[in-house]
Amino acid sequence: EAQVTQNPRYLITVTGKKLTVTCSQNMNHEYMSWYRQDPGLGLRQIYYSMNVEVTDKGDVPEGYKVSRKEKRNFPLILESPSPNQTSLYFCASSLQVPYEQYFGPGTRLTVT
Amino acid sequence: AQSVTQPDIHITVSEGASLELRCNYSYGATPYLFWYVQSPGQGLQLLLKYFSGDTLVQGIKGFEAEFKRSQSSFNLRKPSVHWSDAAEYFCAVGAPSGGSNYKLTFGKGTLLTVNP
């Protein structure tokens, strides 16, 4: 089944403890992106990757890192999480721009 | 930079009634337009998209949307709503955005409640 998977789906952590949210797609898509969704703010792009080894900042990149060593994987790294990063995170992929993006199921992160 | 406005934060309709969700966008050229639906606890699912051509596009689950260039709108419609349509709906604009980026810019969403 063609899909975007994210792990973990739920995570509660403490301030400053490094964490990684994994994202993987099995559709051989070139483009991948991370979004965060907050009430009243909608979805905002954190980072994107046009293809392997090419990543760049979106609208809200502060406090996040990404890497794209393989086409299928695009992990999101929070080196020192803070409470303002409590949010619902979505990974998405697209065959290439400007085609539609397919979204993962989301990761709900709580930082205390 | 592109922007998307969904004027209605929350809409309530009765089952079987017709539905129209509004979406207005701001972009200098013809953008790529999308409607996504998010059910509680779920990710976003693509309902339909507009790239070019016929301005009335059909999607899944009986939804359709019409692109009106003169009004910068891309409203979503369904002739008869089912209880399972209760969800949050997001309009999105896809366009180049600085450097090599291409991104989706989302509206803030419209929450649809369906009364029995």
Structure, described:
The complex is a heterodimer of chains A (112) and B (116). With 112 residues, chain A is mostly beta strands. Chain A has strands at 4-7, 10-13, 19-25, 31-38, 42-51, 54-57, 65-66, 76-78, 87-94, 102-103, 107-111. Chain A contains no helices and eleven strands. In chain A, strands 2, 4, 5, 6, 9, 10 and 11 form a seven-stranded mixed beta sheet that branches. A four-stranded antiparallel beta sheet of chain A has the order 1-3-8-7, with no helix packed on it. In chain A, a hairpin with a 7-residue loop joins strand 9 (87-94) and strand 10. The termini of chain A are far apart. In chain B, the strands form three sheets. In chain B, strands 2, 5, 6, 10, 11 and 12 form a six-stranded mixed beta sheet that branches. With 116 residues, chain B is mainly β. The A-B interface holds A 4, 31, 33, 40-43, 45, 48, 50, 54, 56, 58, 90, 92, 97-98, 100-106 and B 32, 34, 36, 42-46, 49, 51, 90, 94-95, 99-104, 106-109.
| Distance between the amino and carboxyl termini of chain A | 36 Å
Largest interface (CB < 8 Å): A-B, 24 and 23 residues
The number of distinct helices of chain B, counting runs of at least 4 residues, comes to: 0
Summarize model confidence as the mean pLDDT of chain A.
Answer: 94
Strand-helix topology:
The complex is a heterodimer of chains A (112) and B (116).
Chain A lengths: L3 E4 L2 E4 L5 E7 L5 E8 L3 E10 L2 E4 L7 E2 L9 E3 L8 E8 L7 E2 L3 E5 L1
Parallel strand pairs in A: 2-11
Antiparallel strand pairs in A: 1-3, 3-8, 4-5, 4-9, 5-6, 7-8, 9-10, 9-11
Chain B lengths: L2 E3 L4 E5 L4 E3 L2 E3 L5 E7 L5 E7 L5 E3 L5 E5 L4 E6 L8 E10 L5 E5 L3 E6 L1
Parallel strand pairs in B: 2-12
Antiparallel strand pairs in B: 1-4, 3-9, 5-6, 5-10, 7-8, 8-9, 10-11, 10-12
